[in-house]
Amino acid sequence: MHLKIEKIVPGGWGLAKMNGKVIFVPYVLPNEIVKAKIFLEKKDYAFAEIIEIISPSPQRISPICPHFGVCGGCDYQHIPYDLQVKIKENLFKDEIVRQLGKGIIDVVKKIIPATNPFFYRNRIHLKIKRERHKVHLGFFKKNTHELIPLEKCFLAIPAINEILIMLKTILKTYAAIANQIKTIEIFFSPNEEKGIIILHTLIEINKKYLKNMAEKLIDSLPALKDVLIKHSAFTYPRSLFDKGYTESGLFFKINNFKVICYPGVFFQVNTDQNKKLLNIVAELANLSGNEKILELYAGMGNLSLLLASKANKLIGLDNNKLAVRNANYNAQLNKVRAFFKKIDVDKGIKDFLKDETLFDCLVLDPPRQGCLNALKQTLNIIKPKKIIYVSCHPATLARDLRFLSHIGYKIKYIQPIDMFPQTHHIEAVAMAVSS
Question: Where's the active site on this chain (predicted)?
Answer without folding.
Answer: 392 (nucleophile), 392
